[in-house]
Amino acid sequence: LLEAGAASPLAAMLLSPGTGSSEVVAAVLECLSRLADSGLTQAQRAVRNVGAVPHLIQLMSHQDGRISRFATSLVSSLCPGDVQNAEQLFESGGLVLLSEQLDSGDERAQLQALSALSQLSAEPVQAHAIVENGCLTSTLQLLEHPNQELRAYAAITFGNLCSAGALTPAQLQHPSVLPHLVAMLSSSNALAKGPAAAAIASMANQPSLRQSLHELGGLPGLAALLELDVETSYHAVQAIAQFAADERFRQVLPEAGAIGPLAGLLSSPQPHVQHCALSAVANLSFVPSAVGPLCQSGALTVVGQMLFSHDAAVQTMCLTTLCNLLGGNAASADALLQVGGHVALLTQLSSPSPDAQSQAAMSIGHMCRHRPAVQALLQAETVPLLSHLLHSPHPAVQLQTVYALGALAAEEEAA
């Protein structure tokens, strides 16, 4: 039938006044549907050439259930992937009908509608039109539907809407949407987690929204995503870094299970992921209850290696982390010595930055409270470097230098 060109006359019959009988219309739609299953491109072209999409959209709301189902199925299959058919779908109000199908409670109709939306939403222009026609809330609700196929299509659609930038901050933050986003972080629907994390990362820089996300229980879900694929973990660590920078939430991040995964991301081959993880770890190092878990996680070893970086921002975060961790747990200096991190600290004593010099001297002073570290520091010519800083014009540098030399001398004398 396809080779004989039957698709075009069948499509044209939909526009013919003579095709008035419901039985005839249903039969025509069924034939077109079967032809579309065998040759989608030919069926799309046939419908496009005769301009049948608007009529198919009208038939979606036909009182005869058989006709409406066939029409919805054809719209779902023939419009995605065909620019002209898709444009006619929008212009004829087809998206409104698809939105109604999502709310129908009929799984078959919902599946057909979401199948179409999952493909249409891949194009940014179409993604914006989908949101404008009221499909967002229903799509979010279907992310938790018992039907696995429905959940998958809803996840694809939502992911496309996020990727296309079709959702405004106001929409994402609305009370009808935000709880769905947080729920998706911990849902069984793996396809929804990445887009949800991306949406939350985009709003986590706002203090009021961090509070809302915390109250909705979003932190454990975000922490769990730190261990997923690269893209999802990046969005999650972006959000976690914002929470770690907020003194209100630093205390709860260890309880949310964030420390181990964050320490793991310090070794990420992706610089942007590593940078966000380091920022979060540096801020968490100010929390006394986090010092022990951070040391046990191996974070200090990686941070010691990262201190050799030539990036000034990375150096600053590393020094902050080392100073806090060594101050809270001097015995952790062993991990730093294993990777030569004490050499990197000594290098920072010659930094042009007074802050870096001060933090490096303080870290060395903390290390000296752990006797095995004293010998390594003495062998590395630490005393001459510190003595030079006694002539610094900066009082903070002088103060920390005196602290380090005093700690070094006390441990050497005790030994």
Structural overview:
50% of the residues are buried. The protein contains 28 helices and no strands. By secondary structure, the protein is an all-alpha fold. The protein has helices spanning 7-13, 22-38, 40-50, 53-59, 65-78, 83-91, 94-102, 107-120, 124-132, 136-142, 148-163, 169-173, 178-185, 190-203, 207-215, 218-225, 230-244, 259-265, 271-284, 288-296, 299-306, 312-328, 333-338, 341-348, 354-367, 371-379, 382-389, 395-414. It is rod-shaped, with a radius of gyration of 31 Å. It starts with 6 loop residues before the first helix and ends with a helix. The model has no long low-confidence stretch (mean pLDDT 88).
Feature tags:
28 helices, single chain, mainly alpha, 415 residues
Shape, per Cα inertia axes:
rod-shaped
Integer-rounded radius of gyration = 31 Å
Structural class: mainly alpha
N-to-C SSE string, H for helix and E for strand: HHHHHHHHHHHHHHHHHHHHHHHHHHHH
Low-confidence stretches: none
SSE topology sketch:
Layout: H1 7-13, H2 22-38, H3 40-50, H4 53-59, H5 65-78, H6 83-91, H7 94-102, H8 107-120, H9 124-132, H10 136-142, H11 148-163, H12 169-173, H13 178-185, H14 190-203, H15 207-215, H16 218-225, H17 230-244, H18 259-265, H19 271-284, H20 288-296, H21 299-306, H22 312-328, H23 333-338, H24 341-348, H25 354-367, H26 371-379, H27 382-389, H28 395-414
Helix pairs in contact: 1-2, 1-3, 2-3, 2-5, 4-5, 5-8, 7-8, 8-11, 10-11, 11-14, 13-14, 14-17, 16-17, 17-19, 18-19, 19-22, 21-22, 21-24, 22-25, 24-25, 25-28, 27-28
